[in-house]
Amino acid sequence: MKIWKLVEAHHEKLGVGLFVMPCLLVPMIVMGVVYGLVLLFQ
Length: 42
Known about the structure:
Layout: H1 2-14, H2 17-40
């Protein structure tokens, strides 16, 4: 739970961006991997 306390401490400073960025990055990474696999197996 040490990481969560660190996240909570920074959340006050960074605001919502800390939680929005991973929510945007994860789908982009997944889409990139899927697109790469589609190209690879064509």
